[in-house]
Design goal:
Elements: H1 3-12, E1 17-22, H2 25-33, E2 39-41, H3 43-51, H4 61-74, E3 79-82, H5 90-103, E4 107-111, H6 130-143, E5 150-155, H7 157-161, H8 163-176, E6 180-183, H9 189-200, E7 207-209, H10 221-226, E8 231-234, H11 237-256, H12 269-275, H13 278-286
Length: 289
């Protein structure tokens, strides 16, 4: 089974799919080794990891796809990726969808924000009209070569126009053929129920987004499944955790001039050697020597 088909089956499985997001190859390796069946890779983490900047459309499509290619080549599980607003008109959407598919991604989402977009939990968002967004969604659906490649429609309309507009767009995007719909930044469990009831009526899976400190209640996977979600993404946890750990190590090193007492909080040289796959590479080299 190819990774797109595997991802599609996981979305449709009875149990909710937990989809933590990596921000680079190291974090992708950690998540795969932790046992997750699929992972995400999205603009929030990539902007922070590659540029040290927030998710405000400063990262180019070329940079994003390049990192997707690296991650997909590294792990054996499905990788779900982010193409922001499509980086232009329908022709740009077609190109980036095909590039993501060639990179090895199992699926992607495209959102209805205006450009430049921003993180879905930041203030000051705006969205395009459905007349502007729908051609991009249709182009994304048309562009894929593997029919199992999952095209997800994301709407940020709730924060801008309220729940009724968000539900209207969810129905419209599902009716247009989106394989999954992602209504971003819902504020209450009642809104979650309304979104999922709307999509369930159209037999379209729904994705939740759990951002620590964000606008959506931070709920467990089991509760989200009961509310009707098929997938739950965690886009920020890896970068939040990495920055905190690096800050603590850097502060200790600056204060003490050595990391000796910090060793219990770090991997050992040998443990990292094993984690990064160096021993397997060394063993492989022997077959050619």
């Amino acid at each position: 089974m190819n990774r797109s088909a595997r991802f599609r089956s996981l979305i449709r499985a009875p149990e909710i799919l937990q989809l933590p997001c990596c921000h680079d190859g190291l974090s992708a390796r950690v998540l795969e080794q932790a046992g997750f069946e699929a992972i995400g890779c999205a603009g929030y983490g990539l902007s922070g990891s590659l540029l040290g900047m927030p998710d405000i459309s400063v990262l180019s499509g070329h940079e994003m796809v390049g990192q997707y290619r690296n991650v997909c080549a590294l792990v054996n599980i499905p990788v779900f990726v982010d193409i922001d607003t499509g980086f232009g008109d329908v022709n740009n959407v077609i190109r980036v969808v095909r590039e993501c598919e060639k990179a090895g991604a199992a699926g992607l989402f495209i959102e209805d924000q205006t450009y430049p977009k921003r993180c879905g939990h930041m203030a000051g968002k705006s969205v395009v009209t459905v007349e502007e967004y729908l051609p991009k969604l249709k182009a994304a659906l048309w562009a894929r070569e593997n029919p199992d490649f999952v095209i997800t429609a994301r709407s940020d309309a709730l924060a801008v126009h309220g729940i009724e507009e968000a539900l209207y767009r969810a129905r419209l995007y599902a009716g247009t053929g989106a394989d999954m719909v992602f209504v971003e930044a819902v504020h209450t469990t009642e809104e979650m129920k309304a979104v999922n009831a709307t999509l369930a009526a159209l037999d379209t899976p729904s994705m939740a987004n759990m951002i620590e400190g964000g606008q959506t209640p931070l709920l467990g996977a089991a509760e989200l499944q009961q509310l009707g979600y098929s997938v739950v993404a965690y886009p920020c946890g890896s970068v939040f955790t990495a920055v905190k750990a690096l800050r603590e190590w850097a502060a200790h090193l600056k204060r003490h001039g050595t990391s000796t007492e910090f060793l219990p909080h770090m991997l050992s040289f040998d443990a990292y050697f094993e984690f990064i796959g160096a021993q397997a590479i060394r063993d492989r080299e022997k077959t050619f020597l």
